[in-house]
């Protein structure tokens, strides 16, 4: 089996010890890999969530059973259920206790597309496989069982640097689909990528 992590370096824990406003654009072009079956996608869109400074963050009002993973350790997956039907995956960052995370909003599929199509039967083309946080979670089989999963030493999902640099000038916009702090310009995406969720 061609496992993408064999062709790149798994990101170290220190990479995640950054403010989400710094980390988010640096995550662009990194590769999310499922170690079980080799499914992989290049990150092309992200959103930052800034804990107690951010009314839209799940951690805004403090630590709860639902959001506990957001408070550390860093370099883990925070996975939550939304609208009673969708899972979304986030990268925990900063320092332990911050409640900071970056939402992975879209991927460009790069490996295991047959498995992604099997998981997302409604997708009509490669672009529709992972162009949104719920879609990519479905395509990559990310669900509540992965909440708290270690992206550095874990046996399920890892983030890999395959040598493709983050874009020097990513597009920066306001976040999408929020009722609070929607005006914060904390969303970044790869310019001209056809795989993002929304221009």
Description:
There is one protein chain. The protein is an alpha+beta fold and 199 residues long. It has helices spanning 20-27, 113-119, 133-139; strands at residues 9-10, 31-34, 40-50, 77-82, 86-93, 100-111, 157-161, 171-173, 187-189. The protein has three helices and nine strands. Strands 1, 2, 3, 4, 5, 6, 7, 8 and 9 form a nine-stranded antiparallel beta sheet that branches. The model has no long low-confidence stretch (mean pLDDT 94).
What is the secondary structure topology, with strand pairs?
Layout: E1 9-10, H1 20-27, E2 31-34, E3 40-50, E4 77-82, E5 86-93, E6 100-111, H2 113-119, H3 133-139, E7 157-161, E8 171-173, E9 187-189
Antiparallel strand pairs: 1-7, 2-3, 2-7, 3-6, 3-9, 4-5, 5-6, 8-9
Protein name: Putative 3-methyladenine DNA glycosylase
Family: Belongs to the DNA glycosylase MPG family.
EC number: 3.2.2.-
Question: How many whole angstroms does the radius of gyration measure?
Answer: 15 Å
Assign the CATH class: Alpha Beta
Instruction: Report strand %.
Output: 25-35%
Helix content: 10-25%
CATH architecture, by name, is Roll
Mean residue pLDDT = 94
| Number of distinct beta strands | 9
Parts with pLDDT < 50 across at least 5 consecutive residues: none
Shape: globular
Ends distance? 35 Å
Any idea what the CATH superfamily is called?
Answer: Methylpurine-DNA glycosylase (MPG)
Number of helices: 3
Query: SSE string, helix = H, strand = E?
Result: EHEEEEEHHEEE
What is the CATH third-level topology name?
3-methyladenine DNA Glycosylase, Chain A
The major beta sheet can be summarized as:
9 strands, antiparallel
GO molecular function: hydrolase activity, acting on glycosyl bonds
Organism: Dyella caseinilytica
Protein name: Putative 3-methyladenine DNA glycosylase
Keywords: DNA damage, DNA repair, Glycosidase, Hydrolase
């Amino acid at each position: 089996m061609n496992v993408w992590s064999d062709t790149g370096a798994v990101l170290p824990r220190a990479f995640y010890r950054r403010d989400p406003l710094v980390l988010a654009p640096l995550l662009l072009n990194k590769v999310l890999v499922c170690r079980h079956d080799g499914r992989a996608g290049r990150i092309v869109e992200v959103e930052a969530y800034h804990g107690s400074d951010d009314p839209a963050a799940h951690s805004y009002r403090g630590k709860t059973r639902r959001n506990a993973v957001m408070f550390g350790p860093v370099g883990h997956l925070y996975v939550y259920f939304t609208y009673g039907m969708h899972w979304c995956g986030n990268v925990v960052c900063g320092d332990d206790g911050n409640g900071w995370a970056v939402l992975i909003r879209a991927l460009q599929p790069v490996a295991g597309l047959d498995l992604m199509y099997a998981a997302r039967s409604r997708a009509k083309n490669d672009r529709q496989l992972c162009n949104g946080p719920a879609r990519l979670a479905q395509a990559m089989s990310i669900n509540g069982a992965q909440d708290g999963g270690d992206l550095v030493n874990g046996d399920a999902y890892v983030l890999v640097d395959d040598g493709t640099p983050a874009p020097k000038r990513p597009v920066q916009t306001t976040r999408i689909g929020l009722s609070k702090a929607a005006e914060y310009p904390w969303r970044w995406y790869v310019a001209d990528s056809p795989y993002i969720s929304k221009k």
